[in-house]
């Protein structure tokens, strides 16, 4: 009865338009109150305790810093210089600009770790360039949105930080290392349909007429951006700072590049940058803290065990269960943001992981891959919303293009499921 109340209340609150974080907290609080009718107020003390417990975790300090890094590099002009450098390498021609967009977005993933921030930074440069070259605006938005989704796989990643907080035994360095090869695989998978569609539909006919940037000049201009992942990831690997401290280093590095080197960020811009980063960080952290109430009610009210037993004894076997989980995650990614998916489903998934002895780092990579697909799968599609707004097109017009990207990245996810060493080899090699 209490389990039914918990999930019913959550669904009803969402249909009433209550923000998902508040819906999680209110549903959890209602279930806790009903379960402790004899000592209701004493039982409700678990609400503020778990609100704080969900927030008071050291790794979460990195989230506002990496969000701030994304805002800083969005305005620093680094994306434009990286694009020019990439074009100087691959040249111009049909299908080359989509390849450049995906490559630059993957590289930006080594700086910010935020999909929407990269969609804004890369989209602001690439969508206009692709339009001038003759690519349809809807196609350009689809490519940028899909490419930006790789950012939550390639370290540093906000999604992996949240996962490490929720799952014991999954350290942030191990998750960062585990996401590297699957992130590259996902990017390569996206390049195939992007280039194929460009050439099949004869897009980019005007691209060959534009001059090719000079290699050494573009390399010199892009060098500060190219060094950012080296500073962030190299410093963590060398043991100079933790992932949380790396986020702070990245902020100051980005400010130095934007304010001193490129001089694209002034003192007046700092307020807007800090305001945007503060608002987005507050939303993420409040949802995390309210979900702590929901997770507490799941674990203490006996909801998880019956659900786990029903799944395990459903008769479909281990890989049938994995397939069902993938389908569920892909569907949920169409309607919920990635952080919410983690907070809702990880408490339910953990007993299943333990039953089948699945590696928590491998499963975290698969989970984040599914969330990445959701970032550009309508109707939620936060990356696609950003890219479509920049391209000035309706999201509906991107469907014929973006579904090819969804298919390609889904196949990449299935490859990681079938071959766990793709995600586990690098953490083992690095000693994590």
Q: Which characteristics define this entry?
A:
cell membrane; mainly alpha; 432 residues; single chain; globular; transport; 2 domains; transmembrane transporter activity; 21 helices
Residue share in β-strands: under 5%
Total domains: 2
| Termini Cα gap | 43 Å
Poorly predicted runs are 38-42
- Taking all Cα atoms into account, the compactness measure Rg is 22 Å
User: How is the main sheet built?
Assistant: none
- What pattern of helices and strands is seen along the backbone? HHHHHHHHHHHHHHHHHHHHH
Summarize the amount of helix as a percent range.
Answer: over 70%
**Average pLDDT reading:** 83
- CA-based shape: globular
Q: How many strand elements?
A: 0
Briefly note the structural class of the backbone.
Answer: mainly alpha
Count of DSSP H/I helices:
21
GO molecular function: transmembrane transporter activity
Family: Belongs to the TRAP transporter large permease family.
InterPro entries: DctM (IPR010656), TRAP_DctM (IPR004681)
Protein name: TRAP transporter large permease protein
Task: Describe the model.
By secondary structure, this protein is an all-alpha fold. The protein folds into two domains: 1-44, no CATH class; 62-429, no CATH class. Helices cover 76% and strands 0% of the residues. The protein has helices spanning 2-15, 20-35, 40-44, 46-55, 62-75, 78-90, 96-108, 115-133, 137-148, 158-166, 172-200, 215-238, 243-261, 267-300, 304-312, 317-333, 338-356, 360-374, 382-391, 399-418, 421-429. The longest helix is centred in the middle third of the chain and has 34 residues, at 267-300. The chain starts with a helix and ends with a helix. The relative contact order is 0.16. Residues 38-42 have low confidence and may be disordered.
């Amino acid at each position: 009865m209490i389990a039914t109340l918990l999930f019913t209340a959550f669904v009803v609150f969402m249909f009433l338009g209550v923000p998902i974080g508040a819906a999680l907290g209110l549903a959890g609080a209602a279930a806790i109150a009903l379960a402790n009718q004899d000592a209701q107020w004493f039982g409700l003390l678990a609400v503020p305790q778990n609100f704080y417990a969900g927030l008071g975790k050291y790794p979460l300090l990195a989230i506002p810093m990496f969000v701030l890094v994304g805002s800083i590099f969005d305005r620093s002009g680094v994306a434009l210089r990286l694009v020019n450098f990439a074009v100087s390498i691959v040249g111009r021609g049909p299908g080359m600009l989509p390849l450049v967009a995906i490559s630059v977005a993957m590289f930006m993933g080594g700086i910010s770790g935020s999909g929407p921030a990269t969609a804004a930074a890369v989209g602001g440069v690439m969508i206009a360039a692709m339009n001038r070259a003759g690519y349809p605006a809807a196609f350009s938005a689809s490519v940028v949105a899909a490419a930006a989704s790789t950012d939550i796989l390639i370290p540093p990643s906000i999604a992996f930080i949240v996962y490490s907080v929720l799952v014991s035994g999954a350290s942030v360095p191990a998750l960062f290392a585990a996401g590297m090869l699957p992130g590259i695989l996902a990017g390569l998978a996206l390049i195939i349909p992007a280039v194929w569609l460009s050439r099949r539909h004869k897009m980019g006919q005007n691209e060959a007429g534009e001059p090719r940037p000079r290699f050494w000049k573009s390399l010199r201009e892009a060098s500060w951006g190219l060094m950012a992942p080296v500073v962030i990831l190299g410093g963590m690997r060398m043991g100079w700072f933790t992932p949380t401290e790396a986020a702070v280093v990245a902020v100051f590095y980005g400010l130095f590049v934007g304010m001193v080197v490129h001089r694209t960020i002034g003192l007046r811009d700092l307020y807007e940058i800090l305001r945007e980063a503060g608002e987005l960080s507050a939303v993420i952290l409040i949802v995390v803290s309210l979900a702590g109430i929901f997770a507490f009610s799941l674990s203490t009210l006996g909801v998880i065990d019956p659900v786990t037993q029903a799944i395990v004894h459903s008769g479909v076997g281990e890989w049938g269960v994995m397939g069902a989980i993938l389908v569920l995650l892909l569907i949920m990614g169409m309607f919920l943001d990635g952080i919410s998916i983690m907070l809702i489903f990880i408490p339910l998934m953990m007993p299943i992981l333990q039953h089948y002895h699945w590696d928590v780092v491998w499963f975290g990579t698969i989970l984040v891959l599914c969330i990445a697909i959701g970032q550009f799968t309508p109707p939620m599609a936060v990356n696609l919303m950003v890219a479509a707004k920049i391209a000035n097109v309706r999201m509906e017009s991107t469907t014929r293009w973006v579904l090819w990207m969804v298919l390609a990245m889904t196949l990449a996810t299935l490859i990681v499921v079938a071959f766990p060493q793709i995600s586990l080899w690098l953490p083992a090699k690095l000693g994590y």
